[in-house]
Design brief:
Elements: E1 2-6, H1 10-22, E2 26-30, H2 33-39, E3 48-52, H3 60-70, E4 77-82, H4 87-95, E5 100-103, H5 108-140, E6 158-159, E7 165-166, H6 168-175, H7 186-193
Parallel strand pairs: 1-2, 1-3, 3-4, 4-5
Antiparallel strand pairs: 6-7
Helix pairs in contact: 2-3
Length: 197
């Protein structure tokens, strides 16, 4: 999975990037919040982010807020990485839109487990987005018949909105995706061809 890492400390950024690559992820490393925000504007922006809280310029919280405000249709999973460990910090990070919170120095096993959760969430969101797109596409192609249809009780022609009369088959074909194949029901077969044996 493609992961964006925003960490202003060079050593921490390299160590984290190497660890993520070792676990099989593709890493987009950024040295500050401004670079991370610019990376999130790209068409193939990562959907899983690890943001350091304290960075020069845009801090991790501000990047998090901007991502949440500007990308509601393709949500990212955001993990805040910070040395700030007070309960109020945790609450502030979650209120800014973070999905998870990892304290520095982090335990690699814990981070890997939390990334696993994030990856599952991102994959489920992508599957859901695909299903929604399929449903929207299907709805665009569905034609339905609704309302009262005046039909002749003798010949079964239907009066359309233009006050002209059409055969039932033609009307249904014009107003739906249905196609007709003619046959005989058992009653008509008996009535019209009953003695054809």
């Amino acid at each position: 999975m493609k992961i964006l890492v925003a960490e202003d400390d060079l050593t921490s950024r390299r160590m984290l990037s190497l660890l993520l690559e070792k676990w099989g992820h593709e890493v987009r490393a950024c040295e500050d919040g401004a670079e991370a925000w610019a990376a999130m504007q790209e068409p193939d922006a990562p959907h899983l982010l690890i943001l350091d809280w304290m960075m020069p310029g845009l801090d991790g919280l501000e990047v998090c807020r901007r991502v949440r405000q500007n990308q509601p249709e393709s949500p990212a999973y955001i993990i805040m990485l910070t040395a700030r460990g007070e309960r109020s910090d945790l609450i502030e990070g979650l209120e800014a839109g973070a999905d998870d919170y990892v304290n520095k120095p982090f335990d690699p096993s814990e981070l890997q487990a939390r990334l696993g959760v994030g990856q599952r969430v991102v994959e489920l969101q992508q599957v859901l987005a695909e299903r929604v797109a399929e449903l929207q596409h299907a709805l665009e192609h569905v034609k339905t018949l609704q309302g009262v249809l005046p039909i002749c009780m003798m010949c079964k022609k239907i009066r359309d909105d233009g006050e002209s009369w059409q055969r039932l088959e033609q009307y249904v074909t014009d107003h739906s995706e249905a196609q007709f194949s003619h046959s005989l029901c058992p009653e008509c077969l008996e009535k019209h061809y009953g003695d054809a044996d």
